Amino acid sequence: MPWYFKFMQIDIITILPELIQSPFEHSIIKRAIQKGLVKVNFINLRDYSLNKHRQVDDYSYGGGAGMVMMIEPIARCIEDLKSKNNYDEVIYMTPDGETLNQKMANTYSTLNNLIILCGHYKGIDERIRELFITKEISIGDYVLSGGELAAAVFCDSVIRLIPGAINDETSALTDSFQDDLLSPPVYTRPVDYKGIKVPEILLSGHAKKIEQWRMEQAIQRTKNRRPDLLK
Q: Are residues 54 and 86 in the same domain?
């Protein structure tokens, strides 16, 4: 193994494991799993229900529309996982969590063991958040049907940063937001498409000037599209 080899385990608690599995069966995440860099387990929360109907939700105290995910199945599940492994974080994907960004993804890519809880319905009983959850993460100011897609987005942003997940590791280092700038424009063949030509500087072979051009373009693009990042 290379000197930088690390292993990450992610246990995702969900009531719909079949919904979330597909993103982990393709592209960079699939290769990272095959290389043994990361192991992702899909834990069916209904397996921890003692109800014959495998119930994991109930009506909300105080009335109102929507069901609430119950304490007992979630608690049993997390306690069972913790009895077998030490976890760096127990994450709950929720719209009112801290918004995911590149710096957060960088940080989580250095950890080893994560639990991710996917919510549904009107959310989870608040006492689960108080007793078990160590981090709450949102992927944006909107509501999804459940936390599975949000968990997949989070995992993709993290796993691709694990050393060895991407064949050319410098590619991840030049992504948007890594240095609080958007990425500069990129080009490939043909040189001329309908009169729109690749900038001459990129054809010059002059590495230093190309790097300077890319930095200037990144700064300009950030000013135009995301000036908030430059603050």
A: yes
